[in-house]
Amino acid sequence: MVSNEKVLGILPELDRALMPQERDRVLEEMVVRAYRKNEVIYREGDSPTHMFCLVSGKVKIFKDGVGGRTQIVRVINAVECFGYRAAFSDENYVTAAAAFEPSVIAAIPMSLIYQLIRRNSQLACFFVRRLAIALGRSDARTVNLTQKHIRGRLAESILFLKESYGTEKDGATLSICLSREDMANLSNMTTSNAIRTLSVFVRERLIAIEGRRITILDEPALQKISRMG
Q: Of 27, 140, 187, 191, which one has the greatest count of Cβ atoms within 10 A?
C-alpha cells in the first residue's frame, strides 16, 4: 500500500498549500485504501465526511437518471481530489462514485479540511481554483451532451478519454477500457445507439475495436465530427 507521505508527494499543489504543522496533521489523519473494480466509493444521498484523492487507477462520478439509465458525469484522473463539493455546500452527495478499475484512494476527513482552510488562505485558494476548474468543465460538457448529435457526442467522448487517460505506447490505443454501457453512459445515449455508432466509426476507419480496447485511427476526423456536433 502507498504510504501517506508518498500520497502527499504526488499531490504537489495540495502539498505546497499546507504549512509544515498542517501537513503533519493531514498525514496523521489520512487513510489510504485500495478499491476493487466497480467498488462504490460513495453513494448518492450519502453524507460527505471525507475528501478523496485518487492516487492510482480510474474513478467515475455518475448519477442514476430516469428509467434506470445511468449518466457518467465526469471521470477522475489520478492524483486528482474529489468528493468535497457537497461538503462545502452543506448537502448530501447528489452523485455517486465508483472505481472503473482497481484503484488506490486516500481519504482526508472534511472536519480537518474545515479547520485548515479557516487559518490557511492558500489552502482555501486551492479549493476555490479546483472548484472553478470543475465548474467550467461541467458547463462545457453539459452543452456538448445536450446540443450535439449522437455521432458528435461519441466522438467527443473518445477524445475526452484520450485527453483524460492518455494512450498506450502505440500512441493511439486508449489506456482505459470501458464497456459499451459505460461508453453510452459517458456519451448520454442508449447502449444500443453507442454500439451502432461505434460500429459505424469502425466501418469508416475512424477507430478500431478489439474487445473493450479502442484504437484511434483518424483523430482529425473525430475532432471534426466532435466540432460539427
A: 187
- Report which residue type is found at 6: K
In the 8-state DSSP scheme, what is residue 77?
P
Handedness of CA 212, 94, 11, 142 (dihedral sign): positive
Four-CA torsion 96, 140, 78, 75, nearest 10 degrees: 30
Instruction: Judge contact between 192 and 154, C-beta under 8 A.
Output: no
pLDDT computed for residue 201 by the predictor: 96
Amino acid at 219: E
Q: Which residues pair with 56 in a beta bridge?
A: 104
In 130-212, which ranges are E strands?
A: 207-210
184 touches 193 (CB < 8 A): yes
- Give the mean pLDDT of the chain: 89
- Which residue type occupies 216? I
Find the largest Cα–Cα distance for the chain.
Answer: 59
Tens of pLDDT, residues 54-75: 999 999 999 887 666 788 888 8
- pLDDT tens-digit map of 75-92: 888 888 999 999 999 999
CA atoms within 13 A on the CB side of 143: 7
> Which amino acid, 115?
Q
Q: Give the up-direction half-sphere exposure of residue 98: CA atoms within 13 A in the CB hemisphere.
A: 15
Rounded Cα distance between 189 and 145, Å, is 9
The cell for 143 is 452543452
Judged against a pLDDT cut of 70, whether residue 159 lies above it is answered with: yes
Amino acid (1-letter code) at residue 150? I
Task: Dump strand ranges (E) for 57-142.
Answer: 59-64, 70-76, 81-82, 96-99, 103-109
